[in-house]
Give the backbone structure.
Amino acid sequence: MRAVIFANGVFSHPEIDRARLRPDDWLIAVDGGARHCQALGLTPAVLIGDFDSIKTQERQALDQQGVTMVSYPACKDETDLELALRYAVEGGADEVLILAGMGSRWDQSLANLLLPAMVELAGAQVRLVDGPQEAVLVRGGETLKLHGQPGDKVSLIPLRGDVHGVTTHGLEYPLEEDALYFGATRGVSNILLGEEATIHLERGIMACFVIHSPQKLDI
């Protein structure tokens, strides 16, 4: 099951992200992110958060439409997006797509990018997407398959320390059981050679960023 979470960040490319949606997606709105969902002509199945960024009348209208309300207090240890991710995975989602997860606040944006590294989410593939850009984690022992078009940019950035045993196929600058070091930029701005590439990691955890050519976006 795939959950699509509408966060309350910047929704830069609604026309691209709308095309990513499937009829059977489980739509979850994070607080004011409900507006992004509604802007696409959709109604979320769940509204979750402390409801500080959605108007009372908007929330009441969604409630009347049968949307499940999951309310939390404003004073809590987790962000609304973290709570939504936990809710999705606990509800059975093994794939999660996050829309509008980035914004003008650097702290929130970095925290959102790192959320998929939570141990509790290890069994699900979590992707953050914004139009032509997407980010997904690769954990030790995993092989990630990428789809796109020649010329798409691919960056590999270590998290939580160095990563070892990085092997890539289908990228302009190949890696063969190489190490990438935390804080260094060797893995930034590689290039997709064809329509598919694979990235295998032996040890560690890293983020894979893909910037698709908007003219040739493979959704």
Q: What stands out?
A: The chain has two domains: 2-131, 136-216. The first strand starts at residue 2 and ends at 6. The mean pLDDT is 95.
